[in-house]
Amino acid sequence: MKAAAQSSKDARIDLRVNLSQKTLLELAAASQGKKLSDFVISASTEAAQMALADQNRFVLPEEQMTKFLESLEEEPRDIPELRALFARKSAFE
């Protein structure tokens, strides 16, 4: 999931970090030939995308993925306890 690119930067985020964090970020930015702000924006945007992706998709080894996909094609099992749960009146009603 990628956010739409905006041509102008019209929002601001201010951060306070300790000296060792700033030094680390500056070294990492320099190692990639980026300005500090560009590096922080890029790294934090990537981390945000990964955090959201973890909630929307999952990866399985091929054998487990095959079993998972096959299970989606199977007829649903009748689980009496689940049927009873859904038959009860909701606490929100």
Can you describe what's shown?
The chain has 93 residues and is an all-alpha fold. The chain has one domain (19-87). 55% of the residues lie in helices and 0% in strands. It has four helices and no strands. It has helices at residues 19-31, 36-53, 62-73, 80-87. Helix 1 (19-31) crosses helix 2. The longest helix has 18 residues, at 36-53. It is elongated, with a radius of gyration of 23 Å.
Which assembly state applies to the chains in this document?
single chain
The run of helices and strands is HHHH
Straight-line distance between termini: 36 Å
Strand-residue fraction? under 5%
Percentage of residues in helical conformation: 40-55%
Note poorly predicted spans: none
Number of domains: 1
Report the average pLDDT across residues: 90
Note the total helix count.
Answer: 4
Structural class: mainly alpha
Q: How many strands, what sense, and barrel or not for the largest sheet?
A: none
- Overall outline: elongated
Number of strands: 0
Q: Radius of gyration in whole Å, from Cα?
A: 23 Å
